[in-house]
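User: Here's a chain of 192 residues. Predict its fold as tokens.
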Amino acid sequence: MDLTEGTLQEKTARAKKNMMWFAMLSMFMTFAGLTSAYIVSSERKDWIDNFIFPSSFYISLSVLIISSVLFYLFKKAIKTGKRSTATTLLLATFVSATIFVVLQFKGFGEIIAQGFYPTGSAATVTTSFIYAIVFVHLLHIFGGVIVLTVVLIKHLKGKYTQENYLGVQLAEMYWHFVDVLWIYLFGFLLFM
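Assistant: Prediction complete.
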């Protein structure tokens, strides 16, 4: 299909989706750089091997996967005109996102309880990288929570219909992206 074909609404939707893909690619490159630096730095003599991965991060992985499923079901409910079901699913997505954030901070607490700090004399290169990677991802999650809030407000105002739900599609792209990104980062940090 020629990108110049279609109605103004179709062209606008394609342009917004392309901008979202570009933004996600940029975010991916940020994390590719961080994880590459992590791999290179892991060859240092002061790299620690006795780090125990926080149990809160395992739980947060499950919560984030559940939130992706809930958001997918929310979009499906919008597409089929089930507004009350959609509202419940979107609120559940929002709650699960909030739980994820709380679990991430709990994970930071578990790292500190092991005696590893992000900065200062008790910091190590290893834990500084872990804090940086998780914190930067958490910033993207905060962005996602803002997106969920905007979608929730617009949904409650009745802005999304079976025919008009571009905002939901864009939010879904972003939310699934940060979820998949956490799955990657979780596996990377756990096994590297």
